Amino acid sequence: MESGNNVDPTAGVASPEKSTIDIIQQRFKADEHVHLIFEAYQIRGQEHSEGLLTLVSSESGGTYAIISFSLLRTPLTASNELKINNVFAINGSFKLTTETTGIVTNQFNLSTDNDRPSKYYYHPIRTEMESVDFNEFYAKINSYKSSMWNADMPSETTLNFRWLDDYREIGEVKQELKKRESQYIVYKDFTVYCATWNVNNQPCWDSSISLRPWLARSDKAPDIYVIGLQEMETTKKAILNATQMEMIQAQWIRKMLENVHEGVEYEELRSVRLAGILLTVIVRKQLRPHIHCRVCWVARGVFKTLGNKGGVAASLQLNEANICFINSHLAAHMGNVMIRNEDYKAIEEGTRFDGFGPHPITISDHDHIFWLGDLNYRIQEPPGLQCDAESYELRLQYDQLRKEMSQGRCFKGYTEGEIKFLPTYKYDVGTDTYDTSEKQRAPAYCDRVLWKGKRIEQLLYNSVMEIRESDHKPVFAIFRVKIKTRDEAKYKRIQEEVLKAVDKRENDNQPQITAERTVIEFGLVRFNEPSVRDFNVYNNCPQQVDFEFKVKDSPLNDICEKWLNVDPRSDSLMIDSARSIRLRMMIDPSSITGLLKKICNTSGKCDFDILILHVRSGRDIFITVTGEYQPSCFGLSMETMCRTDRPISEYKQDQVKQMMLDVSPEYRVTMPREFFLLIDYLHKHGDELKGIFQSYDRRRQLSSHFNAVRDWLDTWSEDEFPGTPQTAAEALLLFLDLPEEALLEPLVEDLLVSRSKSEAMELIHMLSAPKRNVFMHLCMFLREVIERYDYELSSVAAVFGRILLRSSKRSLTIDYQNSCSDFMRRFIESEDTAAGGNGYGGVTGASLQT
Known about the structure:
PH-domain like, Immunoglobulin-like, 5-stranded mixed sheet, Deoxyribonuclease I, Chain A
């Protein structure tokens, strides 16, 4: 840069560009490494998806896999542009095969774990993504597999592929949290007490025998006890007697619980037994709810299915760590070293725990492993060697187990603490004297405790000489284990950061629109009065976006409630375009019942609706439609109206809700004032009523004067009636028809089958006072109209019968309508009376008071 330009010399200097492998490496944890990448694409239907195959290894697992990514965009500039779509563990079942059939020749298949092969294609010419060509990819993968799975390598079950679970069918949030584990994981100290004893069929639950010298040797109370017994009972007769074996097991466990460290409340977590081999896990009581445990066993030995030899195991999930405990009894006798190795291998391969995820986990999948038991490896001293009692190091030079471990034939990767105690086998029972029988078996360290994993510190390893009930001495080992634990405060902070970051990435890579408002406020909404609100939606991404309002899972099976209309229901938005959405609110006769029901059934504030604006291949937007309904007399029950002490227009929505929910028989008036006002007006205009009750349909558009009549009724106005007799008749029919329950419910069915007016009257007297009074008063009015003004009886009976006796249980058949009409005729047909006292006669306002 030239001098004199007065420019910051560091400005404009670009940081080094990251390579493609560097970008991909960011998707993995610190001990997972990307070795090579190969460009490959897939074809699904008509869609072509560019992608990358990566060879990745795990240091902790010691295994390799191919992980398939699809590319959200090219060229690749950031790790969030990669999406994992498949994982192929390079195990014994892994296959990479080429295909020469078909139109496209550049194709191959990948499969593993007996899954259906996945077909991939590759371009004959590579791009600038640092990927290898197909021949190199094919050669390296197959070369690795053949070298990994040769005869000298360990079997598949001893290898750890569990790290791949973090990339199999899990969300991006979990993957990101896994990557950032180091920021919220702490390691909490737990004391683990491992104890093993071959009890030689000796019952030790006698109260005089104490196991404390074996089980209570730690200064600090352990968090977890793992106690293994061998030869708890080995007679075939006893092993075949399940009840007897369960009793023996229960007695041993009770004895263990009585002899663990004092001052702490312990309980049995889980026990697993195979014939005479028992493993019991005992934990502090407060730990019990936080541990998830699974068990399994592998039978070996002479009986095989009975398992006089073999292993039992428990897998614990504690906090964020997995711990495995194995108690085994391997083949006996000096010369059976190879059989012992085979027993170990069979237990290692056969131990599988279900219930922790989509795949069973093996021993090697655990973070911390403790293997204890009578391993039966002997000390093969050369002839003439003389060892004194304290010559541990000299004697252990000839220990079969250490020799086999050093040569990789068993317990590969396991550690054993320093032995500073005498051989634990074979003693004359009741003494500290080695075998004096005819066989005079050489002393041996048969009883061992081994471990495998990180952050394990052995605090003590010893035998117990003072327990003499068996020909073996008990052995114990105490460990301090740093258990992977989540710091909840740090985790919550990291989780929030990850959620925000993932949410932003998803938003950046998904079709999306922005709504001008997500809360649409209608304010005060009135019955039969339309109201309109508009809002805009905008396309904020560089592609066309299709949207629609989603049909909700509701009885209506529609995008919105009946009182709302949305226009348009769906549309497309081009880049940088907007669209206006119109919401029209209309609470009319067809929707008022549903709205009032929703208000009653909603605790707290009742919104009119919540719309789901669905963006295709993107996120849904929820639009809340809110406001407050101004109550009207239309739609309310007679009981609710009789609880009012002032005009309904003076009540708020919540106040009316409380009256609707009130089921007490206490009323302020005998019948609704609004009903009386309508009847009184119609009675005064009787000579103009002919024809107004001839037909009725609540779906018909209301007359132009209706809202004025609504306000007149809702305010108890003293002004002149603002409509016509036809409008008053319309209002009366709606007033009777709109409540959710018909006026003569819940007795409609009984009334329809009543045989006389007197029988019906007995039922009507069972109705609530408001319903009974309205019905009787209405019938008097209709009877006078028919008698005085020669109004057609059949039409009146048909219209009012269908309204007063409507039933959700009945379909609208001719027979049903005829039954309703016949019932009404009994009450409104004129009677021949001497005094003529059956007329309407009018009702004063004072008579409405209770």
